[in-house]
Amino acid sequence: MLRPEPNRLNQRLTLLAACLIQFLGVLDYYAVNLAIPRMADDLHASTTSLQWVISGYQIVLGAFMIAGGRLGDILGRRRVLLAGVVLFGASSLACGFAPSPAPLILLRLLQGLGTAIMFPLALAVVTNAYPAEQLRRAIGIVYMVSATGTAAGPFIGGLFTETLGWRWIFFMNIPIVLLIVGLILRGVRESRDEQAPPRIDLAGLLSISAGLAIVSYAIDRGPDWGWQSPLSIGMLTLGVGLIGAFVFIEKYVRWPLVNLNLFRNRPYVVITLGGAAANMLYATIIFTVGLYLQDARQLGPLAAGVVFLALSIGAATSSQVAGRTGNLSPRCVLSAALFCGGLGTLLMSYYTAWPAFIPAFALAGFGAGLGWAYAGVGTQAVVAPERAGEAGGVTLTMLIAGGGVAIAAAAAGIGDAAQSPNAGNAMLMVLRVGGIANCMAAVLVLLFGKVAAPIKVQPD
Question: For residues 380 and 3, which has the higher predicted lDDT (pLDDT)?
Answer without folding.
Answer: 380
